[in-house]
Amino acid sequence: MIKNVIFDIGRVLLDFEPFIYLNNLYSDSNLSKLLYEEIFCSKEWIGLDEGSINDIDAVNIFCKRNPNYNKEIMQIMSNWTDILSPIEGTVEVLETLKKSNYKIYLLSNFHYNAFNQVYSKYKFLKLANGIVISSHINLLKPNKEIYNHLLDKYSLKASESIFIDDTLANIEAAKSIDIATIHFKNSNQLKDDLKSLNLL
Q1: How far is residue 2's CA from residue 191's CA, in Å, rounded to a whole number?
Q2: pTM > 0.85: yes or no
């Protein structure tokens, strides 16, 4: 029987579309593409999720690598968390599950400072009974250790837990240690899947 519902955050609870953000910010589509690839597709971005690099060092590396775009890089890195807006349908699901006495957990690859910002900003994140953030423990999904860390930290049974994530590799990793899963595509599909499991 499922007792614990584990949510990813980015693109599940909070919208995260950096390429759209950059296209809205700059009229030059080539500039948007360059900045998207240089920042959001970089190994440093992954390092920020992993907690192996901090924001200041990442900005310095981005600027050194792209000296003609230092102003743009600093602007983006100062403001990008503004695009992390709630996906209302999923937030509604989380709140309903909480009211139905399921335990709620968050398991996400997320930058250290960015997570602290959104956690302070959005009350629904505080409904979680427990939270594991990649940059806080230097582990990334889909590494199995991060899932086991969550289970161990909160004394959860995999067989009593279901994990919701938008990335297939993360879903497969959870399945491999016997956590039930839902591959998130949108909040309506999530509601249907949870209803089919008699969780909603």
Answers
A1: 16
A2: yes
